[in-house]
Amino acid sequence: MTSYVSRFRDGDKDQKDLLGGKGANLAEMTNLDLPVPPGFTITTAACRAYMRDGHVPPELRVEVTLAIREIEDTIGRRLGDFHEPLLVSVRSGAKFSMPGMMETVLNIGLNDASVKGLTEFSGDERFAWDSYRRLIQMFGKTVLGIDSDLFAAALDARKTAVGAATDVDLSASDLRVLVQTFKEIVVERTGREFPQHPREQLDMAIEAVLDSWNTDRARLYRRRERIPHDLGTAVNVVSMVFGNLGETSGTGVCFTRDPSTGETGVYGDYLPNAQGEDVVAGIRNTLPLSELELLDPVSYDALRHAMRRLETHYRDLCDIEFTIERGKLWLLQTRVGKRTAAAAFRIATELVDESLITMDEAITRCTGDKLSQLLFPQFDSGAARQLLTRAMPASPGAAVGEIVLDNAQALERTAAGAHVILVRRETNPDDLQGMIVADGVLTARGGKTSHAAVVARGMGTCAVVGAEELDVDPARGEVRVRGEVLHAGDTIAIDGSTGEVFRGEVPVVDSPVMVYVSDGLDAGLAAAADPEARALVTAVDRVLRHADHVRRMHVRTNADSAEDARRARARGAEGVGLCRTEHQFLGDRRQYIERLVLADTDDARREALEALLPLQREDFVGLLEAMDGLPTTIRLIDPPLHEFLPDLTELAVKVAVAAVPDPKDVALLAAVERMHEQNPMLGLRGVRLGLTLPGLFALQVRAIAEATVQLSQAGLDPRPEIMVPLVGSVRELQLVREEAERVLAEVSASSGVPLDVPIGCMIELPRAALTAHRIAEEADFFSFGTNDLTQTTWGFSRDDVERAFFADYLQNGVLTISPFETLDADGVGALVRAGAEGGRSTKPGLHLGVCGEHGGDPESIHFFHDVGLDYVSCSPFRVPIARLEAGRAAVSRRSSAA
Question: What is the mean pLDDT of residues 759-776?
Answer without folding.
Answer: 97
